[in-house]
Amino acid sequence: MSHNCAYVRQHYQVPAEVGRRIIAYGKPGVILADRGHYIGVVLDEDPKKRISNYHPTHEMQYGEMAEVLPLKEAGHDRQMLRLVRCRARYRRRQTSR
Q1: H or E segment at 52?
Q2: Could you tell me if 38 and 53 are in contact, meaning their C-beta atoms sit under 8 angstroms apart?
Q3: pLDDT of res. 18
Q4: Concatenated DSSP letters of 2-48
Q5: Is 51 strand, coil or helix?
Q6: Any idea of the CA torsion for 79, 84, 87, 92, to the nearest 10 degrees?
Q7: In contact, 86 and 18? CB cutoff 8 Å
Q8: pLDDT beyond 60 at 2
């Protein structure tokens, strides 16, 4: 949607970005999408790895960057592949600084 949660980071003053581990309502997961005013999260316990919208400040705890992004077991859809590529570009930029 926009540039890796830039609006959420600026407006809500939280460290939201694609690939960051979070705890939402007491359940661990990973941010996988920028959804404008919300963040798209896949909870670890969701076997279908569906992205759900969460408000960035409501019962949300931010952790470290995830080592591996969760992928659907049966086939990799285009959105997940884009996220993996985006994460790889992000890592390359961070190591070149």
Answers
A1: strand 52-54
A2: yes
A3: 92
A4: -STTHHHHHHH-----TTEEEEETTEEEEEEEEETTEEEEEETT-TT
A5: coil
A6: -130
A7: yes
A8: no
